[in-house]
Amino acid sequence: MNNNCTGNDDERDKNCYRFASCIPRSYPTARGRVERLHPDGQYAIGQDCGIYWRETDPPERGAEAPDWFYVPNVPPTIDGYRRSYVLWREHMAPFIALEFASGNGDEERDRTPLAVAADGTTTKPGKFWVYERIIRIPYYGIYEIKTGNLEVYHLIDFVYRRIEPNERGHSKSRNALAAVVGFPGEFAVNWLRTS
């Protein structure tokens, strides 16, 4: 199987990379925090990078490419680079994934299950369903670009539960992600601000 993200070679190479390398200079405390979290350097993130969750032909049909994801306790590169994240080889789901909803968010909230017809054709499953039921990412965020709304879901008992706003309404703000999932969320919030 060819482990490629979408796009040309230059786009793929820049999309899957080591976490610390993308920490903006405007966020100096992040580098120290990530080094404390991962003194062994074992972590990776991807930006528009394919997470392959099943083998298909063509390979892209068995992948989702969140706008951003973070995976602790995995090698930052494989053979010197990382062009994708292959779930059945890595054996660890990302800890958090973020999607930017350029429309109304229907695509990011799509719960359509994978279905195989009698003739062998498959129905493409929705992103939400894949993240919740197959990849099982503990935290999933959907950021609506037009409204600035951020929905955060937490996987509890194999089902995503939306994290409701606190008394100050923080789950509707970007800072909710940082408050909910700690440092990975804090870094993701900064990424939202600079992207």
Structure description:
- This protein is of the alpha+beta class and 195 residues long.
- It is built from 6 helices and 12 strands.
- The protein has helices at residues 9-15, 28-37, 87-90, 127-135, 175-181, 183-194, and strands at residues 16-17, 43-46, 51-52, 63-64, 68-72, 85-86, 96-101, 115-116, 122-123, 139-144, 150-156, 159-162.
- It has a 7-stranded mixed β-sheet, sandwiched between helices. A 3-stranded mixed β-sheet has the order 4-3-6. Strands 8-9 form a two-stranded antiparallel sheet.
- A hairpin with a 2-residue loop joins β11 (150-156) and β12 (159-162).
- α5 packs antiparallel against α6.
- The longest helix has 12 residues, at 183-194.
- It is globular, with a radius of gyration of 17 Å.
- Uncertain runs are 1-15, 17-28
What structural category do the secondary elements indicate? alpha+beta
Distance from first to last alpha carbon? 31 Å
- Work out the helicity level: 25-40%
Specify the biggest β-sheet. Answer: 7 strands, mixed
How many strand elements? 12
Principal-axis shape equals: globular
**Average predicted confidence as pLDDT:** 77
